[in-house]
Specification:
alpha/beta, Rossmann fold, Arc Repressor Mutant, subunit A, 2 domains, five-stranded parallel β-sheet, 12 strands
Length: 227
Amino acid sequence: MTKVLVVEDDSATAAEIAATLQDHGCTVECVDTGRTGLVRAVSDAFDVIVLDRMLPGGLDGLGMLATLRGAGIDTPVLILSALSDLDERVRGLRAGGDDYLSKPFEAIELAARVDALTRRRSRSAEPESRVQIGELEVDLLKRTVRRGNRDIDLLPREYALLAYLMEHAGQVVTRTMLFEAVWNYRYDDRTNVIEVHIGRLRRKIDADGEPEMIHTVRGAGYILRAP
């Protein structure tokens, strides 16, 4: 069971986060200051830390994070902040954050990002050179893709999308997650670039009447799973 430390001074937000993560099978501990969060993070083993950027008591989120990293604590950290501009996101990631989610956020995206961080932490230090889901196989070294006996030729962006979906197979990934991972920009819901590229990828992966592997989850994002 995933053990999550939530460091959030707003009690309503902390309760919402805790309820969301508990619904997804996590055990959750909430604290409301950076100093308390630092003590708990150092003294106990957590799988993920959800950390508010702005905290009272003289030690804000980035200060707590920098202290953790300086102490050799490598627990994955998801930073939450109402400060969503690019400079703030960069500061958070450079301070040692593993992901950054702007407030307000959707519960399903919070849960998906925590799950992704958990999976990333549990992966072997020696990554597999091949990833296979059902009959779909990606060779990460050769950057080749096959489904059954059929070779699939993908453009670089299509390959990056597929690799991300394969990495998170069986999980719902949001458009924001895909856009930030593949395009390295903050998602703008006025663009349909995700839909266009997913459509092209789907036509290549789910071709020739084969069972569908890339599914749209209405109002949430996409999921790749074996037929």
